[in-house]
């Protein structure tokens, strides 16, 4: 489907642009910030994901003749604004937390600087990507911690819509997963693809033995056979008879997974298939994975709970104006004072301090550009903000397959720097506090 990311937005972003072009404020320099006021209930940390997808979308963020005709025909904006949009490309700057980084309440996850006109058009696109991708990556990270050293694979494509399935596969790898069943995600991002056969493959054959013989003939002995269509014990026996002790793996998709994994492991060993791996699936979440830690399971396939953020499908991130150019040309900090929705004025710096090699505080420093330029962090504080776009020029190191691999590795390192309570599945407060300093 050929579409413009510039229309993946709410109508009011274009109506605001139209009004601001008419009153002269559209070209005022502005700074917008993405942050969340709180983590999902009981969560100890979040994982940033989706920045690379934002940069991919930004490269295509312009309107063609058909898009402009749609805006005109629907009277969304005036002819003057249509003219302004004809050659639109984002020319501002973006910095923020890198993918795989931990975030907490009030962390300035993304800062977007440019004119009001161009920055306001990005709001919905940026939030829709960051909110969903970070929710999936945060859930994935909890699942990976619960799974210990056993690999987790994304099998959630059929439990969400077709495009979020692709986004979820990418975010899951950022969050620590090893691969995906989604072929489009594997193609687009160079991810490891996994998959063999479903129960219908067994059912379409005249016998389970014939199904196993067919799969092995097509995929080789190193394939994974699904053994719970009928009777697991009989299926395991048949699988080893057909493939021999070189059988790559078996998958269990129902029942008491811990008990069945133990029985299957003992049976495989008794049959001489001591190297055959056991994969389990079936509505797994981080709590189910934790309960399987002592079971002889080699890998997991996770679906519904992954792509729905394990009960938290959004991170409640918001996109707020924090600084703007005044009528006199000087930059002025601004903030909302709404009840329970107040914001911190000014652009931000973000650091993390450490004690005994463990993170202890998230430091957010707010102020004017000159004030922040003169600010000196304490020794040992880690600067959390990296540049993604400089006056319209995208830093491509944050896009593509290598960026995902780097984010995958960075997440593990960043999580290891948090107090160990971060990996607990018990509900609690953010594992480190956020301290805000307004200069």
Description of the molecule:
By secondary structure, this protein is of the alpha/beta class. The two termini are 48 Å apart. It is globular, with a radius of gyration of 25 Å. Helices cover 38% and strands 20% of the residues. It has helices at 11-23, 51-59, 65-73, 79-85, 116-120, 123-147, 162-174, 183-189, 199-204, 208-219, 232-243, 257-270, 286-291, 304-307, 369-374, 400-416, and strands spanning 29-36, 46-47, 93-97, 102-103, 110-115, 152-154, 179-180, 224-226, 249-252, 277-280, 299-302, 317-325, 331-333, 347-355, 358-367, 382-383, 385-390, 393-394, 434-438. Residues 152-312 form the Nicotinate/nicotinamide phosphoribosyltransferase domain. Pathway: Cofactor biosynthesis; NAD(+) biosynthesis; nicotinate D-ribonucleotide from nicotinate: step 1/1.
CATH level 1 name of the largest domain? Alpha Beta
Low-confidence stretches: none
Q: How far apart are the first and last residues' alpha carbons, in Å?
A: 48 Å
Number of helical stretches of at least 4 residues: 16
Q: Could you tell me the CATH topology label of the largest domain.
A: nicotinate phosphoribosyltransferase
In total, how many domains does the architecture comprise? 2
Work out the number of β strands. 19
Computed structural class = alpha/beta
Largest sheet: 7 strands, antiparallel
The CATH superfamily of the largest domain is identified as nicotinate phosphoribosyltransferase
The CATH architecture of the largest domain is Alpha-Beta Barrel
Overall geometric form: globular
Q: What is the CA-based Rg, rounded? A: 25 Å
- Relative strand content: 15-25%
> Helicity range of the residues?
25-40%
Catalytic activity: 5-phospho-alpha-D-ribose 1-diphosphate + nicotinate + ATP + H2O = nicotinate beta-D-ribonucleotide + ADP + phosphate + diphosphate
Pathway: Cofactor biosynthesis; NAD(+) biosynthesis; nicotinate D-ribonucleotide from nicotinate: step 1/1
Family: Belongs to the NAPRTase family.
Organism: Bifidobacterium parmae
């Amino acid at each position: 489907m050929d579409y413009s990311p510039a229309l993946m937005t709410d109508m009011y972003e274009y109506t605001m642009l139209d009004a601001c072009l008419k009153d002269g404020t559209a070209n005022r320099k502005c700074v917008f910030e993405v942050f969340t006021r709180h983590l999902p209930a009981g969560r100890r940390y979040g994982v940033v994901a989706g920045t690379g997808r934002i940069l991919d979308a930004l490269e295509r963020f312009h309107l063609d003749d058909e898009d402009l005709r749609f805006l005109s025909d629907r009277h969304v904006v005036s002819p003057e604004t249509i003219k302004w949009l004809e050659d639109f490309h984002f020319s501002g700057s973006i910095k923020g937390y890198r993918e795989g980084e931990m975030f907490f309440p009030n962390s300035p996850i993304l800062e977007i600087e440019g004119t009001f006109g161009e920055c306001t058009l990005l709001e919905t696109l940026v939030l829709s990507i960051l909110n969903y991708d970070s929710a999936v990556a945060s859930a994935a990270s909890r699942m990976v911690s619960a799974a210990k050293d056993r690999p987790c694979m994304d099998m959630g494509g059929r439990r969400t819509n077709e495009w979020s399935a692709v986004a979820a596969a990418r975010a899951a790898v950022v969050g620590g997963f090893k691969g995906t069943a989604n072929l489009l995600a594997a193609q687009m991002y160079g991810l490891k693809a996994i998959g063999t056969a479903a129960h219908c493959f067994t059912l379409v054959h005249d016998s389970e033995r014939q199904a196993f013989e067919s799969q092995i003939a097509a995929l080789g002995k190193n394939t994974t056979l699904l053994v719970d269509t009928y009777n697991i014990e009989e299926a395991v026996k048949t699988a080893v008879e057909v493939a021999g002790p070189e059988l790559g793996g078996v998958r269990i998709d129902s029942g008491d997974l811990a008990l069945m994994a133990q029985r299957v492991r003992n049976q495989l060993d008794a049959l001489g298939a001591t190297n055959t791996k056991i994969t389990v699936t079936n509505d797994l979440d981080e709590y189910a994975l934790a309960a399987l830690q002592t079971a002889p399971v080699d890998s997991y396939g996770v679906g519904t709970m992954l792509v729905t953020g394990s009960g938290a499908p959004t991170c409640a991130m918001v996109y707020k104006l924090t600084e703007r150019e005044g009528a006199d040309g000087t930059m002025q900090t601004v903030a909302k004072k709404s009840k329970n929705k107040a914001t911190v004025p000014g652009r931000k710096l973000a650091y993390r301090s450490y004690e005994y090699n463990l993170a202890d505080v998230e430091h957010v420093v707010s102020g004017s550009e000159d004030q922040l330029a003169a600010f000196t962090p304490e020794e040992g504080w880690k600067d959390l903000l990296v540049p993604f776009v400089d006056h319209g020029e995208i830093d491509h190191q944050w896009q593509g397959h290598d960026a995902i691999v780097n984010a995958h590795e960075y997440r593990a390192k960043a999580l290891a720097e948090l107090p160990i309570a971060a990996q607990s599945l018990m509900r609690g407060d953010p594992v480190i506090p956020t301290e805000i300093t307004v200069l």
